[in-house]
Design brief:
By secondary structure, this protein is α+β, with helices and mostly antiparallel strands. It has helices spanning 31-44, 47-55, 59-76; strands at residues 5-6, 9-15, 21-26, 29-30. The protein has three helices and four strands. Strands 1-4 form a two-stranded antiparallel sheet. A two-stranded antiparallel sheet has the order 2-3. The longest helix has 18 residues, at 59-76. The protein is elongated. The two termini are 14 Å apart.
Length: 78
C-alpha cells in the first residue's frame, strides 16, 4: 500500500554544503501496521467489546484493526 515507515532509523547524515544534508533512512515499522496496532489497542480498550470479542473468532479483531488502518491510509493519502 505504502512504503512510508513509522519510526525509521537515520543511518547516515553528511553535510553537503550550504547547510543541506543527505540522509539514509532504514528500517522502521510499516505505517499501515502502526495504524493497525493503535486501532487494535483502541478496540481492545473498550470494555463493552470484551465479551463480544471472546465470542467471536480472534481474526475479527485483526481484520477490524486493519480495516481501520486501511481507511486511515486512504484518508492520509488524499
Amino acid at each position: 500500500m505504502s512504503d512510508i515507515k513509522a519510526f525509521p532509523e537515520i543511518k547516515y547524515v553528511a553535510p553537503q554544503g550550504m547547510g543541506s544534508h543527505v540522509m539514509a533512512v532504514e528500517g522502521g515499522m510499516d505505517l499501515r501496521d502502526y495504524f493497525a496496532s493503535d486501532a487494535m489497542k483502541g478496540l481492545l480498550s473498550n470494555p463493552k467489546l470484551h465479551e463480544e470479542i471472546l465470542k467471536m473468532e480472534q481474526s475479527w479483531i485483526y481484520d477490524s484493526a486493519y480495516a481501520i488502518a486501511d481507511k486511515m491510509m486512504e484518508i492520509r493519502n488524499k
